[in-house]
Design goal:
169 residues; mainly alpha; BZIP domain-containing protein; DNA-binding transcription factor activity
C-alpha cells in the first residue's frame, strides 16, 4: 500500500532537489511550483491502511495522485478510457444492435446535413461571384466616366483660359 504525506519545503530549491531525487520524471514531469509537494511512499505498509479497503478504493480518497502543472492541478486517470484521446469511440469497436442502428442513423443524418451545407456554401459562393462580376463591371464604367469627365474638365479649363486671354487682351 502506498502512503501519502505532504512535505513542506523551506524554499523552492529544496522542493526541486527533492523532486529530482524522489519523483519519477516520467510520472511527475512537471517543475515544482509551490513549497508544498505530495510525496508517495510505496515501500511502507501499515496496519493503518486496513480501513481503506482495496487499492482502488484508497486511491479515490488519496490526494497523492494529483499532479500540478503550473496553476492547473490534474488528477490522472487510473485506467485509460475505452475511447480515443478525442473522446470518440473507435469505428472498429463492435457495437450492440441498437447502438449500431443509432450510429448508422446518425451517419445518414450527418451525410445529409453535410450535403445541405455544401449546397448552401456553393450557392453563397456563386452569389458572391456574381456580385463581384457586377461590381467589377460597375467599376469599369465608373472609371470610364471619370476619364470622360477629366477630359471634359480639361477642355472647359482651356476654353476659360482662351476666353480670359481674349477678353483681357
Amino acid at each position: 500500500m502506498a502512503r501519502c504525506a505532504i512535505v513542506k519545503f523551506k524554499n523552492k530549491l529544496d522542493a526541486i532537489t527533492y523532486s529530482q531525487v524522489h519523483f519519477d520524471p516520467v510520472i511527475f514531469g512537471c517543475e515544482v511550483q509551490t513549497r508544498y509537494s505530495v510525496v508517495v511512499d510505496t515501500t511502507s505498509q501499515d496496519a493503518d491502511d486496513s480501513h481503506y479497503g482495496n487499492q482502488e478504493e484508497r486511491s479515490d480518497n488519496c490526494s497523492c495522485f494529483l499532479v500540478k502543472y503550473g496553476p492547473a492541478t490534474i488528477k490522472p486517470r487510473k485506467y485509460p478510457a475505452l475511447t480515443l484521446a478525442t473522446g470518440r469511440r473507435s469505428k472498429y469497436d463492435i457495437l450492440s444492435t441498437p447502438e449500431a442502428c443509432r450510429r448508422d442513423i446518425r451517419r445518414v443524418r450527418n451525410r445529409a446535413a453535410q450535403r445541405r451545407a455544401t449546397e448552401r456554401r456553393d450557392e453563397i459562393h456563386a452569389n458572391l461571384s456574381e456580385q463581384v462580376k457586377l461590381l467589377e463591371i460597375e467599376r469599369y464604367y465608373l472609371e470610364n466616366d471619370i476619364q470622360h469627365l477629366n477630359r471634359r474638365k480639361l477642355l472647359l479649363e482651356t476654353l476659360i483660359l482662351k476666353y480670359k486671354e481674349e477678353c483681357g487682351a
